[in-house]
Structure formats: structure tokens, C-alpha cells
Amino acid sequence: MFDTALAWLREPQQQLQAALRWAAVQTLRAGKLPKHVAFIMDGNRRFARQRHIARIAGHSAGFDKLKETLQWCLDLDIRIVSVYAFSIENFNRSKEEVDALMQLALEKFETLLDESEVLHQHQVSVRIVGNMDLLPEALQRVLGKVVYETRAYTKAILNVCFAYTARDDITTAANRILTALDEGRIQSWLISVYLLEYYHPVWFTKVLWPDFGFYDMLECIVAYQRAAPVVSRLRAQQFAVEQQGLRVRLNALLAQLGGEGDGRSSPFEAGTRQSEKVAALEEEQRYRVQTYVRALREAAMARYATLAAAYDHNRPCDAAGKREAIPLTRHTASLSLCLSVSLCLSLSLYVSLSVCLCLTSPLKIALKHHDIIHFIVYY
């Protein structure tokens, strides 16, 4: 009876909180919202130390917070979310902690598969960014299953950076581009360096990731909206610079091919013939890049299909139809295809997946092809 009375007293407060959240979301949605938000999920161990609980309990709380935060993003109509879940450098931690983290990740992604109604309802495509060869075999299989199951969805995207570092991403992308150049699949003039000069709004908060709340996120969004005019101006300036750079490269290429470009005049001012050559080169650029990226995606999806099939084969069901747990085992993968494709796609398509930056200023405004804001939570 006492519990019923408490529930009755709490109900108006909960309704008021829900109404306030709805009003806050509607207010923010009236302004400019980022299309892509990235979270660095740090602070789990410190959270555990502060509460005198096991480290793995802190990491588990961090995973639970992610589920809650993704719902906030859906409420705000933010359809692309990236999360930095596990760094390659984290493998330097104790074996006990790493093994516990791998087991926790396996259990959480298993739960995601068992309760996949939300993914299907919102048509969320899950993508793994990182060197999957470094992960245990059982975890690779469940990740592959999640990615393969959601591959056709386009309404929302969840990028999970797992076994990832920017250094490994850039190295892998550069090696792939070099291989593509050697094979003649792309040409050097297709590669732009502008991506490496781009920045984006970054918000720092001292709130630990498991403590990150709804109103902490709203504070970040408000900061982004206040910075939006500066971002728009920088975007226009950078786009003009990039277009000029592209024209210079096209003009130089025309000169090499025996065209009328002399390296000084713009090909767009050289008459109809020159314009037709430029249009043809631009079309070739699009075709080569699309073909190259399609091949990368097909190779990655082929591996995911293999992992998904292995997952189904190795996961027998009990009498109730529930999947049985499988212990993790470390191994060296026979399929050596690193899946850190974000920067590789970015260099060839001038599109950024959002690489995490450590900046000293509280908020640094700059340009991206997509509106991106990072929430960096202090560790």
C-alpha cells in the first residue's frame, strides 16, 4: 500500500518531467540541429571508482547510457550517431579488464540482437568502424550479424568505433588508396587533402559518461545552435577554396592530356570545348570513386555475411528458442580485411565520418561537409 502511495505521488512529477522534455525537444527542433553527433564514451572507470563498484559495472553502466542517449538523438531527429566504444590502445590494459570488456560487449550486442525491435522500428543501420581482426572470434561473429541484419536500413545510422584509433584509420585508408592507385582503380588527382584540414564544433563537459543526462545533451545542442552562423560562413568559404583547388587540378590534368589549359587560365573560362573536357573528367571522377567505394563496401559486406552465417551456425537455441551464451576465445582472423573505411571513403568522396579531435579550447568552430558536433566527456 505504501509503495502504491509513493507511485501515485511520483506520477505527477514524472508527467511534468516528460512534458518539460517534450517542450525542450520541440524548442530545439525549431532551430538548426546537427545531422551527425559523435560521442566519446569516457569516464566509466572513474564512475566506478567514485561509487566503489567494480570496473566492469562502470563499463556496463556506460553501455546502458548509450541506449538512453540514442533515444534522445531519435527524439531530436539526429539520424547519424557515432560512438567511440573501444580504442586499440585499450588492449594495453590488464588482461582481466580486456577480457571482461570483450565479454560485456558480446553480451550487450547479443541483447541488441535479441531485442532488435527498436532497430527494425526505426530502421537503424549499425556499422562497425575499426580493426575487427583484433577482436575475439565470437565477438566478430555477433558484430557481423548485427551489421548484416541491418545493412538495408537507411533512416538512421549508428557507427560504432570498436578496436579503433585515428592513427590506424588513417594508416589503413592510406594503404588502401596506395593499393588502388597501383591497381589503376583511381588516379592521384582524385585525392583531396582538404579533409585533413577540416574541424568541427566540439563540446567539452566534465560529466562522466554514465552520468551524462538529457539536459547535458541539450546544453551541447544549444552551444551548437549558437555556433551555427559561424559554421555556415566557414562552410561557404571552405567550399569555395575546395572548388578552386579542384579547378586547378582539372586544369593541370587537361594540360597533361594535351588540352588547351596552360596552368594559368581557368578551364571554365576556356570555351565550350574546354568545358566539355572538364565535364567529362568530373564524370570520370564520380564513376571511379563510386566504383572504388562500391568495391570496398561489397568486400566488407561479404565478410559480414560470412560472420553472420558463422554466428547462426555456432549459436544453437535452447528449448525455449533462446540463444545460448558462447564464451569468448582470442584468435587471429584468417580474413584480413580491416573495416576502418571511414577515412578512406572520406579521402575519395570528400565526406567525413567524424574523426575525434583533442582540442584545448572549450568550443572550436570549423567546417565539415556534414554538420557534426562532438560531445567529448572527460575521463
Automatic annotation (TrEMBL):
Q: Per its UniProt record, what InterPro entries does this chain match?
A: UPP_synth-like, UPP_synth-like_sf
What family name appears in the similarity comment? Belongs to the UPP synthase family.
Q: By its UniProt entry, which CDD domains does this protein fall under?
A: Cis_IPPS (cd00475)
A Pfam short name: Prenyltransf
Name of the featured protein: Alkyl transferase
Q: Which key words are in the record?
A: Transferase
Q: What is its EC number?
A: 2.5.1.-
GO annotations of cellular component type: dehydrodolichyl diphosphate synthase complex; endoplasmic reticulum
State whether keyword Aminoacyl-tRNA synthetase applies. no
Give an example GO molecular function: transferase activity, transferring alkyl or aryl (other than methyl) groups
GO terms (BP aspect): polyprenol biosynthetic process
